[in-house]
Design brief:
Layout (H helix, E strand, L loop, with lengths): L3 E5 L2 E4 L6 H10 L1 H5 L11 H16 L4 E7 L2 E8 L8 E8 L8 H15 L5 E7 L3 H9 L3 E12 L2 E11 L7
Helix pairs in contact: 1-3
């Protein structure tokens, strides 16, 4: 099931196809050192075949209403990702994670794509709660939920294993009734 969400001129979100695996893999390799500071999944993505399997599994999760992953495309170039997982339909909630290549940060791309995904989650998916967690110290990432009206709920102590150590996570949430598309 293919899904495209327009965000703004020259910026859109697309579910990925196995044929996107090579470009996705190269993008993560190019940004490996930068992304490794905050994202713990890079060691699971060691080859184009691993990336292709991830995309296939992601599409299965979407078909089963368990999750939704998008590639972020800027000027028709794949520059990052944003995903909702797990998609808890019983409790009408999900978590969102996001990333873009280092050279494209600070251009409002993640903020704008996040707005589109939040709107989709609340209006099309019928969800009530969205959570974002960011490692403490990841100020670029944590600035985004603050800007979009998420409520800081606290710190999940040692909430994530990052390669060789635990990191504390800042926890933010937004309810459907609080969402005011900016």
């Amino acid at each position: 099931m293919k899904l495209t969400l327009p965000v703004r001129e020259n910026l859109e979100l697309r579910t990925l196809e196995p044929s996107d695996a090579g470009i996705f893999f190269e993008l993560t390799r190019k940004n490996d050192t930068y992304l490794r500071q905050w994202l713990g999944w890079l060691d699971d993505d060691k080859s184009v075949a691993d990336t292709e399997k991830y995309i296939i599994d992601s599409n299965k999760r979407f078909a089963n209403k368990e999750g939704l992953d998008f590639g972020i495309f800027y000027n028709n170039q794949h520059i990052g990702g944003i995903g909702l997982y797990p998609w808890d339909t019983a409790n009408k909630k999900t978590s969102i994670a996001y990333w873009v290549g280092e050279e494209l940060q600070g251009k409002g791309i993640v903020t704008d794509t996040l707005k589109a995904v939040i709107d989709y989650a609340f209006t099309e998916m019928g969800l009530n709660r969205i959570e974002i967690t960011c490692a403490t110290g990841n100020t670029k990432s944590s600035a985004i939920p603050k800007k979009l009206g998420f409520i800081f709920e606290g710190i999940a102590r040692e909430g994530e294993w990052l390669y060789d150590h635990f990191v504390d996570l800042e926890v933010y949430s937004l309810l459907a009734k609080e969402w005011h598309k900016a």
